[in-house]
């Protein structure tokens, strides 16, 4: 059976959901996600994190994305 819901209800459910401010280098899924989001290889992402730390803003600035 199909259950219809209002679009507003679906959007309200995702309010406050956002990516973390730091990249978890111990989590392969997180590293893959951020490499995809920043359009770099996982190796380039790891090198950037090694240089500037795991803060997403610092990595973005370093990679110029």
Characterise this structure.
With 65 residues, the chain is mostly helical. It has a domain of 45 residues. The protein has four helices and no strands. Helix 2 crosses helix 3 and helix 3 packs across helix 4. The longest helix has 11 residues. It holds the Pfam family DUF3606. InterPro entries: DUF3606. This is DUF3606 domain-containing protein.
What attributes characterize this protein structure?
4 helices; 65 residues; single chain; mainly alpha
Short description, anyone?
It holds the Pfam family DUF3606. By secondary structure, the protein is mainly α.
Chart the SSEs and their pairings.
Elements: H1 7-13, H2 28-37, H3 42-52, H4 56-63
Helix pairs in contact: 2-3, 3-4
Organism: Afipia carboxidovorans (strain ATCC 49405 / DSM 1227 / KCTC 32145 / OM5) (Oligotropha carboxidovorans)
Protein name: DUF3606 domain-containing protein
Pfam families: DUF3606 (PF12244)
Strand content: under 5%
Shape: elongated
* Helicity, as a percent range: 55-70%
Report the structural category.
mainly alpha
Mean pLDDT: 86
């Amino acid at each position: 059976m199909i259950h219809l819901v209002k679009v507003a209800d679906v959007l309200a459910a995702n309010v406050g959901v956002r990516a973390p401010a730091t990249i978890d280098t111990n989590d392969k899924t997180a590293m893959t996600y951020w490499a995809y989001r920043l359009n770099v290889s996982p190796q380039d992402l790891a090198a950037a994190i090694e240089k500037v730390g795991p803060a997403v803003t610092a990595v973005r600035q370093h990679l110029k994305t």
